[in-house]
Automatic annotation (TrEMBL):
Superkingdom of this protein's organism: Bacteria
Organism the protein comes from: Paraburkholderia caribensis
GO terms under biological process: lipopolysaccharide biosynthetic process
KW Transferase (keyword) present: yes
Lineage: Bacteria, Pseudomonadati, Pseudomonadota, Betaproteobacteria, Burkholderiales
Protein name, as recorded: Glycosyl transferase family 1
């Protein structure tokens, strides 16, 4: 590219605050600040805006009416992204970059139709689906890409070993200033966050987030910390978690734990972008005991907010965290999670916030992610031009 700015289109599956969407917005911002020309495409139902402002040009793709099932929803979003890119003009971009299976299929279908030359894809994590169509969409979204990137070494190895796809690592980052900004106690009070101590989990009630096991651990924690409150924040998802949520509610009732504003358990639902940092700073410990993650941005965000974290002792976490910056827990063992929560609440878990945490946060910069991504884009563009005989 001879140092010239590239015209980059980033595609994400939603306007809601999920890890992949955050990655898209923050990578876009860092690419923009590095002098690249970035446009972000996202499906939007009901004219919903992007949850966080971006300095990049943002194209919201209107989602047409669809059925209530997941397959219909995914199909509608694939079609929305295809229509938006065709209307905008795909020839205006040097790089088309999908961040998920929905946008990956939109670009794969356009490539098959001859409307685009190719695309690249970031895999954050892969899910297990009972539906054959969803499984095929997930496979095609990375299998048809010209280049694949992952946000952790663990998923790079998994993609290589299980699917034979060579992927490159482009790490997540963290904006430490955002998570250290003062303010927010009034917001927490309005949500009924009054516990002493407060255990915070971000991402809603989901099986992948291991929320039921956290509930069991919280019940054990309250045996020694009777004023403890569990706050489950966020949860904007395109997938159906209703059955798992019903199990969570039923089990909480069996344990004698009430759910509601100011109760032992507060379930906030989706929140505005300014509220999560306030909750992070209010919390005494943040729990990230997921069974599967691509990277786990919440861990860095909590540490940037100066809050101890309890984390599953599994990959990808074991690839970039250690006992100096977190309290480990075995995610399938509620007693282990409860013990880790107690350790985190006692003398902040012994986490080295003076040296080890700043060193960790310095390793994960969105600007460094953008630098790495630009080099990979340049290689992709060169490969495309060679294939075209340019």
């Amino acid at each position: 590219m001879n140092g010239a700015a590239m015209r980059i289109a980033l595609f994400t599956h939603s306007v809601n605050p999920r890890g992949g969407v955050v990655h898209t917005l923050e990578l876009g911002r860092a690419l923009h600040e590095a002098g690249q020309d970035v446009t972000i495409f996202a499906p939007s139902a009901g004219s919903a805006p992007m949850f966080r402002a971006s300095p990049c040009r943002v194209v919201l793709a209107p989602v047409a009416a669809h059925g209530n099932d997941t397959v219909s929803m995914v199909r509608a979003r694939i079609d929305a992204l295809k229509a938006a890119l065709l209307d905008d003009g795909p020839s205006g971009f040097d790089v088309l970059h999908a961040q998920d299976s929905i946008s990956g299929n939109a670009l794969a279908e356009l490539r098959e139709a001859g409307a685009v030359r190719g695309f690249v894809r970031t895999v954050h994590h892969l899910d297990t689906f009972d539906d054959a169509q969803l499984s095929e969409w997930q496979r095609r979204a990375f299998a048809d890409a010209d280049a694949v990137f992952c946000v952790s070494d663990a998923w790079t190895r998994k993609i290589r070993d299980e699917y034979g796809v060579a992927a490159s690592v482009v790490d997540n980052g963290v904006d430490a200033v955002r998570w250290r900004s003062p303010g927010g106690p009034d917001v927490c009070m309005k949500l009924g966050v009054t516990g002493e101590p407060v255990v915070l989990a971000v991402g809603g009630i989901e099986e992948r987030k291991n929320t039921l096991q956290l509930l069991e651990a919280f019940a054990l924690l309250r045996q020694t910390h009777t004023g403890a409150q569990l706050v489950i924040a966020g949860g904007a998802s395109l997938l159906d978690h209703d059955a798992y949520t019903r199990r969570f509610v039923a089990r909480a009732a069996q344990l004698g734990l009430r759910i509601g504003q100011g109760e032992q358990i507060v379930v906030t639902g989706p929140l505005d972008d300014a509220t999560i940092p306030a909750l992070m700073r209010r919390a005494d410990v943040v729990s990230m005991v997921s069974l599967r993650e691509g990277f786990g941005l919440v861990t860095l965000e909590a540490l940037a907010a100066d809050t101890p974290v309890v984390v599953s002792r599994i990959e990808p976490f074991t690839g970039y965290l250690d006992e100096r910056v977190c309290c480990w827990a075995e995610p399938r063992d509620s007693a282990s999670i409860a013990d880790a929560l107690r350790r985190a609440l006692h003398d902040r878990g012994g986490i080295d916030f003076e040296h080890a945490v700043p060193e960790l946060l310095a390793r994960f910069s969105w600007h460094e992610s953008a630098r790495r991504q630009i080099a990979l884009y340049a290689s992709h563009v060169q490969h495309v031009m060679q294939a075209l005989g340019a």
